[in-house]
Specification:
InterPro entries: Aldolase_TIM, GH. The chain is of the alpha+beta class. The chain is built from nine helices and 31 strands. It has a 21-stranded antiparallel sheet that branches. Strands 30-29-28-27-24-23-22-31 form an eight-stranded parallel sheet. It has a two-stranded antiparallel ribbon with strand order 25-26. Helix 1 (251-264) runs parallel beside helix 7 (497-511) and helix 5 packs parallel to helix 6. The longest helix is centred in the last third of the chain and has 18 residues, at 441-458. The chain is globular and about 80 Å long.
Length: 573
């Protein structure tokens, strides 16, 4: 069994566990993780009232507890009665956290650095030195780079869209883990060989009240920033989530270790979820067909129609593709918030679903998360003007509404579950108001838990699909969707769709190994990409077909021979 062996000198503690070598300074707040980082052991816990600036650091205090070494670095600060940065060293891990005492509302919190006036009188923002060359991100972003230069920032977040600087929430939330390597990748989705250092966040849902974790490099240094957006109040004392450093053989092992660490500490579900047999059958989602038929002349949401879906499904059936699950996509409902079917586009939807059931098929409905469309303001997150911004799952009235919607859609209408989209449209803002005190990633979990629990009460085998591959979300999702395909790498070259989705599949399956994968299929840059991806889909999860007539990006027609080929690849004929 590994041990933490400590050698003490006048200026430092030298730790050797066999898994890492760490030199902890006795004279300043720093520690050298040999070969990887010079850890800066300052932290800033900013509040609504002001910036937290350290103005004096005290020598570390070492306490040994069996085979664990704990180093406390007391720091005098402008915002708190007391502040201590702690390093907890086990034979395999080094955990970094900060504890404060006092009263305040959290703004942003930084670890691996912070603002200070040091005992030497050097002042400003201090950061850790990073000795790696690449950093792996578990969240797809644009440009496409699974491993980016260590000088490039990373955002792990539940906030984003397709606007510049915001296309990094395709997974929302992703597993909260980064991994550092010594070599740069050869391509957009390549993973270098060699040793890796993982840095993961040890926190369960109750402590995930921040919206975003960012890795912020600058001039050879870097720190981590947690954004609490002034929605988490501290009364008495508060300890941040721990950032856990551990050696890994690959980023995939880093994600596996992250999940295991959360389960070991009781912070993520360990139970293997039950699966209904029909969940694994091929999916048809109408969104790609809607976009292709629209061809820029109308909005694709206008083409979520019963007659068109029948036409597309008939064509697929003629070529041997009879999907086990049909997803009726955006926009089958009159309003996103209350989810009443649009009778003009989907007349007699109950009867249509019953007919599909008679054919041995199941029907999912697309659901836009967070939408306040059609909801009364009192059930919403509101802005400074009192205007609705998003549905508020902390409000009991909204939770009751969701239960009623589930009774109506799954019970009366007969639908079989939901494809939940847009979890990244989190209602971000320090001024926003909710009924309850929960915020950040935890509030998203509450939103999904409200839907998930209400759905399962009505129909126990209802299928809930999300794009939330964080291990702590294992109890609010049955299937993880790989989500929309991006296009270009940092050089402006197209990245093959199948390469992107293999990378996403690896992230999702290591973070949530017992969940099914919805392989998705939109948008495709070309028919060749579509065919290449369709061929690979059965090995990557549950095959999902989006296209029937043509590819929306290029207008290339999809022939009967193409569909015959897909049916063969998917074992349908």
């Amino acid at each position: 069994m590994s041990q933490v062996r400590i050698t003490t000198t006048d200026t430092a503690y030298h730790l050797d566990s066999g898994h890492y070598h760490l030199t902890v300074s006795r004279t300043d707040p720093s520690a050298e993780l040999v070969g990887w980082m010079t850890l800066n052991l300052l932290a800033s816990v900013n509040t609504r009232g002001g910036r937290d600036e350290t103005y004096e650091t005290l020598p570390p205090v070492l306490v040994e507890r069996g085979n664990v070494a704990v180093f406390d670095f007391p720091q005098r600060t402008t915002e708190w009665d007391a502040k201590t940065v702690r390093l907890t060293c086990t034979p395999e891990t080094i955990a970094l956290e900060v504890r404060v005492e006092g009263h305040g509302v959290l703004g942003d919190v930084t670890l691996m650095g912070g603002r200070a006036v040091l005992n030497t009188r050097a002042a400003g923002t201090f950061r850790s030195g990073v000795h790696a060359r690449g950093v792996f991100s578990p969240t797809p972003a644009h440009p496409v780079r699974a491993v980016r230069p260590v000088s490039a920032p990373v955002a792990l977040t539940v906030i984003g869209d397709a606007s510049p600087g915001r296309l990094h929430a395709v997974f929302s939330p992703p597993p909260l883990v980064l991994a550092f390597c010594k070599d740069e990748p050869a391509g957009a989705t390549d993973i270098p060989d060699g040793a890796w250092l993982a840095a993961s966040v040890r926190a369960g849902i109750a402590d995930l009240t921040f919206t975003e974790l960012t890795y912020e490099p600058l001039d050879g240094g870097a720190l981590l920033r947690f954004d609490y957006e002034c929605h988490t109040e501290v009364r008495g004392s508060w300890t941040s989530p721990a950032v856990v450093f551990r050696a890994a053989s690959s980023p995939w092992e880093a994600i596996t270790q992250h999940r295991a660490d959360l389960i070991e500490h009781g912070l993520a579900p360990s139970a293997v979820p039950e699966r209904a047999g029909w969940w694994s059958r091929p999916i048809f989602c109408g969104w790609g067909a809607q976009c292709a038929r629209a061809a820029g002349s109308v909005s694709p949401v206008e083409l979520s129609r019963r007659d068109l879906y029948d036409e597309w499904l008939d064509r697929l059936a003629g070529h041997g593709i009879v999907p086990g699950t049909i997803v009726i996509d955006d926009r089958w409902q009159l309003t996103y918030g209350d989810c009443e079917p649009d009778e003009a586009k989907w007349p007699a939807l109950r009867e249509w679903i019953a007919d599909r059931h008679a054919r041995g098929q199941r029907v999912l409905l697309w659901w836009r998360a967070w939408s306040a469309d059609g909801l009364p303001p009192e059930e919403c997150v509101t802005d400074a003007g009192g205007r609705p911004v998003a549905a508020d799952p902390s409000n009991p009235a909204y939770r009751l509404r969701v239960r009623a919607i589930m009774e109506r859609l799954l019970g009366d209408l007969g639908a079989d579950g939901f494809k939940i989209d847009f979890t990244q449209w989190f209602p971000s803002g320090a001024h926003l108001k909710t009924h309850g005190a929960t915020w950040g990633i935890a509030l998203l979990h509450e939103l999904l838990a409200t839907m998930y629990d209400a759905a399962k009460q009505v129909k126990p085998d209802a299928l809930i699909i999300t794009h939330t591959p964080h291990p702590a979300f294992a109890d609010v999702s049955d299937m993880i969707r790989l989500n929309d395909v991006l296009e270009y790498d940092a050089r402006g070259d197209l990245v093959p769709a199948v390469d992107q989705l293999r990378y996403r599949h690896a992230v999702a399956t290591h973070a949530m190994p017992h969940h099914l994968i919805d392989t998705d299929q939109w948008p495709m840059p070309s028919k060749a990409d579509w065919l290449a991806y369709a061929r690979a889909q059965p090995e990557l999860g549950v095959p999902a077909l989006y296209y029937v007539e043509s590819v929306d990006n290029t207008g290339e027609p999809i022939t009967g021979a193409d569909l015959d080929q897909v049916a063969t690849w998917w074992g349908l004929r």
